[in-house]
Fold each of these.
Amino acid sequence: MARELWEGNATIAEAAVRAGLEAFFGYPITPQSEILEHLSHRLPELGRVFLQTESEVASINMVYGAACAGARVMTSSSSPGISLMQEGFSYIACSEVPAVIINVMRGGPGLGNVAPSQGDYFQAVKMAGHGDFHPIVLAPGNLQEAADLTVLAFDLAEKYRTIGMVLADGSLGQMMEPVEMPPMRPVRPPYERPSWALTGAEGRPPNIITSLYLVEEVLEKVNLRLQAKLRQIAANEVRWKEYSTEDAELLLVAFGTVGRVCQTVVREARRAGIRAGLLRPITVWPFPSARIAQLAEQVRGVLVVEMNAGQMLEDVRLAVEGRRPVRFYGRFGGIIPLPDEIMPELEKLDAETR
Amino acid sequence: MVTTVEIPTDMELVYKYPESLTPRSTHYCPGCTHGIIHRLIAEVIDELGVRERTIGVAPVGCAVLAYEYFNMDFCEAAHGRAPAMATGIKRVSPDKVVFTYQGDGDLAAIGTSEIIHTANRGELITTIFVNNAIYGMTGGQMAPTTLPGQVTTSSPRGRDVETAGWPMKMAELIGMLGGAVYVTRQAVLDVPSIRRTKKAIKLAFQVQLAGLGFSMVEIISTCGTNWGVSPLEALDWAKTHMLAYYPLGDTKVSDAVRELMGERVTPFTMVKSATEL
């Protein structure tokens, strides 16, 4: 298929359509409203379900309902709206139904602003809701990845019966790039819905979907099952990309938009005689800890760059386990760090570790 | 020693345990009316022959375990969100019969947004709303439906409308909305009211099956345990105090629902209804 020029939010929306999205429930919020707008004409013309809801709380609970019914379903929002959905994430994770969530992050905390940010890393990766669970969190660094990872989010969500979250940011949502759209998959017909789904107890015992387990030992068993599943995901689904790491002496770690900025930093550093490499996590949960630990043995130091106050930084430090110095550079408020700002930080780390 | 009695073949079976209920005993308190309401819903679903295509949504509240008692596909919603969850189910499964079962804290406090917008969109679901003027499961706190002056564990001097506001008349509120086509308030306080409630529940499900719009049956119920009275006194208290504030009757019956009931709708009313759209 040919590469076409797409806007980021529309890319995600169209990729979801092609992944076989049956229903979308969402509430407008900048900088991702174009996802909702794209789906508002696309889904009805394909005979699928689109509903603009009264709130993000309603959206996530409609997603929960449609997921329980066995439909391929998603919602999208941006930071404050995602906060409102967190109770629902927890129910979905415990009930083990598949759902896809798109977070096009904006500046925070509070109402913040509508500029790109990575301030929701902790929220997505560490505390997506109450109780012990993690969604699978995919962090695209360009629009081709945004399309491909949206499709993957559905596949992983269904494979593991959990939440597949795409963690993008306002700049990915608003930029335009050439994208090769994934092929159109057929929508799964209702009679092929999974056996656990609520489809009416016709000729079978009733299916019950709940996240309530009043007996302590039973809830512990549920948790042990969820933890086993998380370990399985962590073993199978870690994804990342590396740039010039083969002979790297300094390692940059950055995800999403700023990961892409760091590709430029690596090129410029090498021109200046610094052998830098970059690891860009694609899954931020599960995190590529083992590979970072391996690279930590090889390099003199690690520089983490984020559009927040240092959130993924903690996971990098946990992976490096004090083997090498780990430094941080971040900007907030919707500001994307530029190569010219990151270079001096890398040079400092270079000097410190010689 | 169990004695089996053969039903004589010349006699008609007029009463049996509904297929739509599981054989479990409920966890409800002695004298609680949830059991009666569960049974009415189950009888209606049996009579309509839709058990195998019905999906129920349980609330957070005393009926949180309703899925243990209904013999059909069921899920358990977050507090107040049953109408949103039901919306999600119904939109992707339009051939199913979907209903929510909610209490007054669930529907009239934390879930007001969801019930209002679900009703207003005319979602093809049915809501059974049980109003007993108190939070039962959490131990008898003030509900949005608690009557003025009513003592609860969180309104120890009685509900003060100056600070706590007025009891919510949900049937009236929901009845005002365009997408709601059949909204009624009934009670389960004696045999006649129980029979009328069953009729209302049946109509509410028939309205859904006919694809006419959103339907809701509010049911005045009792909570002897948390009101601190005996089951019998609770029925009397509800009749005396609750029915005075919450009058029984329909708050919305659309022309299409009247036609469904076999009532003649005059052409004038129908034209008016069309222009109202």
Amino acid sequence: MKPTHHLDDATLLSYSSGALPAALAVVASTHLECCAACRAHLLDADQIGGMLMQQQRVDAPAHAAREVMLALLDAEPAIQQAAPPPDIVEEHDLDRLPSALHPWFGHSMRALRWRRVAPGVQRIRATGIGGGDLMLLRIAPGSKLPLHSHGGSELTVILDGAYDDMLGHFGPGDVADLDSGVHHQPVTSPGLPCICVAATDAPLVFSGWIARTLQPLFGF
Amino acid sequence: MMDLGQTVAEVAPFRAKRSVSASVSNAMPDALYWATQMSAVSVQRDRVSFMRIYDHFAPRLQRYLRNLGVADGVADELVQEALLTLWRKAHLFDPARAGLGTWLFRVARNLYIDHVRQEPHWLPVQEGLDRLDHAECDRRDSQPESFIDQDLLKQAIDRLPPMQAKLVRMCYLESKSHSVISAELDMPLGSVKSSLRRAFAKLQGSMRAQR
């Protein structure tokens, strides 16, 4: 899976600084897991954070604080613990959801319990996420969504299936990180349902494309 | 008590040396210097090198966390935890990937998100992304060019137009989301994003220039 649609640099800066609302950060992480190019950009963003942190003018640390630090080192075991073995990931396990989604939706695509919210549209909403709204959507193949634009910040990553709009073809791993004001009309590809994870930063005001699509149908 | 006394004696020569260079305590040593200190910490478990790192970075990390609104006492604890993480995981530091400042920034930011913003899933996800990058480096059997020139990045930050500089600082040093920045400055969300995008392109250009 090599994505062709990437995270906006402004979104990466926000992610790097820890300022991206939690729901958006989950979707950004989902893309980062499968995109080495965006991980390289993220490292650049982290370098900026590292430099800004270092550029601050400060005084030398207090004697007492140094003593506390040294005492903490004394309390450390002499032998380093071996690092835990890395997770072994079956790269081609199509049923496995990306790691970033596990806390919210479990591990397995097949085990998801979808709820129908409109004809051809099923949804699962994450509960208990602090910042923003996070949901999985499953849209029937060959569906044409109404023309719409984006309100606040919204991020979508395709997990399975695909859609096309004026910006191109969006397949698994691709992220739609669109500026407000972009009008588009996604059409899901024939064959497979389009499964995606989407987040908005507005927990109460539903302004994104998915919400606008569903709002008149469902009134949530 | 004996232990503490010995510890003080151990660091005393270093402290004497430090006072000589006190006038340049805000100067930034280069990446090679920190790579050498980290190697001493990792291989020899060298406390003097560790305290050199501590003396430079602890006050900066503390200032960073306090600017994010973290209470003094909590900030002190998080700084200690960041430095203990460095002591425990020094062997994972790879100077070819990023400088020590970047590494510690990541550690402190992750601790902030985990402890203060109370997002327990952030840390495991970041560790997972880190492992992917390490695996990537191993597979390619090549490292990204190391030791970006910190001075060039610093100069590029200083040269940013005032509004871009303000937005980048609000983002990193106040950890404000685009929506919050947009509301606070009464600036359209799209303008906040495009300004940040331009700032990032300039700073990235300064880092890439030497690669």
